[in-house]
Amino acid sequence: MKTHKPVVVYGASGYTGRLVCEYLREYAIPFVAAGRSKDKLAEAMRSHVPGIESADYELAEVEHSTEALTALFRGASVVLNTVGPFARLGPQVVQACLAAGCHYTDTTGEQDWLIACDQQWGERFAAAGLLLSPGLAQMYTTGEIAAQLCLQTPGLDTLDIAVFWGGSPTIASTRTILVNAATSKAYYLEQNQYKEWQPDAGLYHLAIPGQHETALALPWGGTSHPVWFRRDPRVANVKVLGGVFNRQLMLGVPQIVAAALEATKDMDPDARYDALSQTAAGVMNTMPPRENPRINKSVDSVHASGPLGRAHCVIYGNCNYKQTGLLQAFAAASLLQRAPLRAGFASGCQAFGHHELLGALRSFGLVQPPLLSVQT
Fold this sequence. Notes:
This protein is of the alpha/beta class. The protein has 13 helices and 16 strands.
């Protein structure tokens, strides 16, 4: 099956995939909603994508294999992938994009997957003039925008990043935390070298701008930023901590992860994956409700420093999953009109520009104007 639409949303029936489709409709971009079950896709579009009756789209049931995905992607220009855990399920999608000549973005937070994309496929995508941009999502890109605004001040080489949001993780996010982040090493950047976070470091207490109460944070798998900034000549050091405002949920995360890892430590990789997936389903097995901007708030805070300078940028927003859906749709809209600013492996800001991404988020009412203070 060869598509005649310019964009494919792979994993369109999931929580994030549905939001991507919603914003593609608002950009008036024709798309294919693809996934393993045509019935689930039809129900997701009909029940969870407002205004879908006015969208130009089609459904595609596809097997998760490089061959089947390549056949589907032929004829498209952009693939927006929401199917994770990406370290396990992403290689087939990336290889299919390369074979079909499509740009690739995804919503991952898996640091090991970003490193794999950079090392295994970055040069091949660049040679083909294609974009490979994993991690285009609120928990990473909005903070990257804040970091780029800080780095407009020369002489700053260290980024201290905090990412917080209100709400519950989706089924897919919960599975990623347990299956991937819990079993993979997490790194920060120190003098342009990856350094491993200590797995038993526990929870961190952070002062969050705009509130008196401290919040609990974790390295959250290391996140995307150390990988994106590793080749930025301005930056030598990057550390990222993140979490949700729900204190009880944060207190429970390390215990759930530790118990799951202990119970599965002697299993072979496939059996362990299945067992951890079952544990994740026990923690979160229902879709969260549609986001409410009065409840689902986000804060991205970046302290940038150098030998003789300081900058601090805060971006307050709401509805982090909607931010992700919009960022993905904006990427598709941009790629259909012009080449990315950088081909090959690149972050959202490197591929599209941080001012452009910020403008999209602002135009849809998802973030406030950034608060930037500079001391030099």
